# Entry
Amino acid sequence: MECSQCGRCCKYIVFQIPSSIDKDLKEYYEVRGFVVLPAQHILLQYNPCPYLKDNKCSIHDKKPELCRRLDAKHLDGVLILKGCAYEKYAHPYQILELPESIRKV
Ligand code: SF4
Ligand code: SF4
# Structure
C-alpha cells in the first residue's frame, strides 16, 4: 500500500480552469473561499470532506469511485498535493504546493 493516509486529498478541492481569469472573476472566486493560482490556472479551497473522521474515511467500503482512483498506476495528468505519498511517481508539473494562505494539513 502506497497511500500514507495523510488525508490531503480529502481536505482540499482543486479545480484546474482552462484559461487565465480576469480581475473580476478572480475576486468572484476569492469571495467564495477559493485561493486562485492564476499562473497555473488553479482554484483551491480547504473544504474537508464530512466523512473524514480522525483523518480516515469513515465510509471506506462505500466511498465514491472518484475517491478510489488515485494510485501510482493512474497518475497521468492528475494533480498531486505536495506531501502525498504518490508524489514520487508524479511529474513535477503535477505536484501542487499548497500556498501558505490555505495550508492547514
Ligand atoms: S468519501 Fe472518504 S475518501 Fe472520499 S473524500 Fe470523503 S473521506 Fe475522503
Ligand atoms: S494525499 Fe495521497 S497519501 Fe494522502 S491520503 Fe490522499 S492519496 Fe493518500
Remarks:
- The two ends are 21 Å apart (CA to CA).
